[in-house]
Amino acid sequence: RWLAQEIKNADLDLTAKRNEGDVDDGVAVRNKEQALAAGKWDVDGLSPQLVKQMIDTRLGLDIADGGMFDFASIRSGATVVRFGPRRTSPSLKDNLPLLNRLLASAKLRFYGHPPEAALNPTYPQNALGQCWAFEAGRGPLQPEDDADNTVGRYATLTINLAEPVQIKSVTMEHAPRDLTPTPETAIRDFRVIGYEDTDADGTPIPLGSFQYEIDGPRMLQDFEVESEHNEALHLMKSITLAIDSNWGADYSCLYRFRVHGDRSVPLPQSSVHASCE
Fold first, then answer.
1. Mind giving me the DSSP string for 203-263?
2. By C-alpha distance, which of 198, 184, 76, 56 is closest to 124?
3. Mean pLDDT of 127-148
4. Could you give the residue ranges of the DSSP H alpha helices within 65-198?
5. What mean pLDDT do residues 10-14 have?
6. Residue 127 φ then ψ, to 5°
7. pLDDT > 60? residue 123
8. What is the distance, to the nearest Å, from the Cα of residue 265 to the centroid of all Cα atoms in its chain?
């Protein structure tokens, strides 16, 4: 299935390049005919070299992804929530003066990535700059207006998950301290809130408060959902990462946020015994 998706993405990329005039259809057809004649292109239109490249890239991404299924991954079908009272905070580049935004659009200046960057693998691993950059105090609500305490004091990231999931743990990642000149941009205190509906609608279910350790032995840190919440959880369709502080910088960078768990909720023991009888 993933290979079919990669092929689809390649086709979309080829179509875009063709529309931009970067691809000559005549040359492409002649090249394919020559490859077919030489036995270097299979009947489905994929060369062995292309298949190998796709597999190598996928393996590299899976290694960067940590090997566990991530329900918050864009590649798996998750999406960023940008509307509603619990929507995701603006990115750093969204709050720039007009001139700076024009320079960023023209790729003459770089002011960070949108929140989707935090929901995709950092590849190659330890590459700097592949993060969601954002400022404090730009969320949908001010703290005094957040009656149910479901948005961050610093910023908010709300995600529609790839599938309904009983959340077991979350993972947060920052660049290695010895590689980045600004380790203080890492998130410090944060909370996780789950919802049984999409778009963070319905009753909020607090899943725990945590702290990312900037001086920890690993820059990829796991946080288990508190057991008293975990036992009562239903399947969550959306989740909010409520960021309350960072480690002192004027802005923050989130390199990766992952959500792990089970696709089904275990039946209570009484129900299991009843079904066995």
1. --EEEEEEE--TTSS-SEEEEEPPHHHHTT---EEEEEEEE--BSS-SEEEE-EEEEEEES
2. 56
3. 70
4. 98-105
5. 47
6. -70, 130
7. yes
8. 24
Confidence at residue 87, expressed as pLDDT on a 0 to 100 scale: 94
Close Cβ partners of 120 (under 8 Å, ≥ 6 residues apart):
73, 74, 75, 130, 256
SS3 content of the chain, % helix, strand, coil (to 5): 30, 25, 45
* DSSP symbols for 6-24: HHHHHHHHHHHHHHTT---
Sign of CA dihedral 68, 74, 76, 80: positive
> For residue 157, which amino acid is it?
L
State how far the Cα of 54 lies from the Cα of 215, in Å rounded to an integer.
36
- Token pair in block for residue 275: 């079904």
Chain Cα centroid distance, residue 271:
36
**Tokens describing residue 126:** 């330890």
Q: Which residues are paired to 243 by β-bridges?
A: 155, 190
Cα 56 from Cα 48, distance rounded (Å): 12
Can you tell me the distance from the alpha carbon of 257 to that of 199, in angstroms, rounded to the nearest whole number? 18
54 token code pair:
């796709």
- DSSP letter, residue 77: T
Is the model's pLDDT at 127 over the cut of 90? Answer: no
The residue count of the chain comes to: 277
Q: Which helix (H) or strand (E) holds 189?
A: strand 189-195
**DSSP assignment, residue 90?**
P
